[in-house]
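tool=predict chain=A
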Amino acid sequence: MLTKEECDLLNARMHGTMVEAMGIKFLPSDDDIALAEMPITDAVRQYFGILHGGASLTLAETVAGAGSVHLTGLDESVYVCGTEVSGTHLQMSATSGKVYGKARLLHAGKSTHVWNVEIVGEDGTVISVERVTNRIISNNSK
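tool=predict ok
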């Protein structure tokens, strides 16, 4: 879904944001998914060493947002804003390495996009599943 050029642009836009602080990077995909990776570091771990569930939700909203930005054609006259995120944690996470957010579009309306996101470990284990709803809002100043 995301091209290399789109990933480069989105990754550059994340400078100085929580996304950058968590180490999230967008990855190109020839598939119908939006894809991002996040390293499991101290910044995203719970006190006993595993990936924090809130970090999984952040990754899910971030990668679904990138997918919605792609669907809008990177149109700067609209904003993509997450309006709902819910998740179910299925497995204990790895304590090192990376996890991947894989967002698959369920609905693309004029003002809302709904995504199903899987957070997957390096070994392919699905750690959690999230549902993300994004609102597409007109930016009248552009």
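Residues 53-71 form the longest helix (19 residues). The chain has a mean pLDDT of 95.
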